[in-house]
Amino acid sequence: MDTFLPLRRSICWIALLGAWALTAMPKVTAQPNSSADRTPSSLTFPILVRNDKIYVQMKTSIGRFFLLIDSGTERTLIFRQSVPRTYLNLEPFRTRLFGIGDSSRVVTIGQMPLAIDLPPWSSFHTLALLGDPLPVDAGPYDGILGLDFFRAYCVLLDRGALRMQIFPVGQCAANTETWTTVHVDWTRHAILVPLRVQFTQTQSEARTEAILDTGANLPLLLSNQYRQAAGLKVKHHYKTGTVKTYGANGVVRADVVPGAQYRLGNSTILITTRVAVARGRLHPKAGIFANKALRFQSVLGNEVLSLVAIKFDALHRCIYLQVPKLN
User: What does the alpha-carbon distance between residue 77 and residue 68 come to, in Å, rounded to a whole number?
Assistant: First the structure.
């Protein structure tokens, strides 16, 4: 009798079982990166509207901050009082903060690296300015989310739905059936939007170029050069229908024009929020508005967001408008 027969049978059974296990296992083929498949195509953040200013809470490399969403400020800024002392090893950098107003007040004291967490995306890295709080009337907040963020991502602001949604900068194209495209001038300092303003009192139309400033709780604010076209006395200060707001450069006072309305670019959407004309100059001698490279005549504040949602597309140098559907 073959003494090795049981051993050979065992080896055969092991070989058969091994072959069966290999055939029963699922085939492994080259698959796309599963983590990339799970990466969302957009991120949504709830926004807070307080005293007609729009804020978002974001986690950063140095803490959680409430930030004013401000397309009218060139760079993201954090207030000195909100930064822990351990992070105050900053690079000295003094410059005037750009913004509207009739004087130039806010001066930054430095700049520091800042990362804003956008999980599961990579963080947004910027060299944030450091300064003191602005004279706004919306209560305490920690800084400003500036135009550098709008350049890095496609940003959708929907005030009606209380959300800010961001997309990769190359994935911003909007459905032309539901969105209206307006071509704008993305300068180094600001977004300049062409406007057509209709004054019903004087039956006239004016064309202007406005800074799109989501940080200003303003209607469409025209420079004082439009007072005559709007039917307002040039040097008269009206007691009713006035606008007062705070910007980086101080206080702005203006008079509301009854019945005025406007369109952005060549769009057919008629905007019926307030239109006001400033009593004084919008561009003081100091600050960004003294920069000859930036020519503007008006400021389009965030009141427009009460009627339309806006998607900002820096790559294609345009914005998209959508009128929210009524429930």
Answer: 10
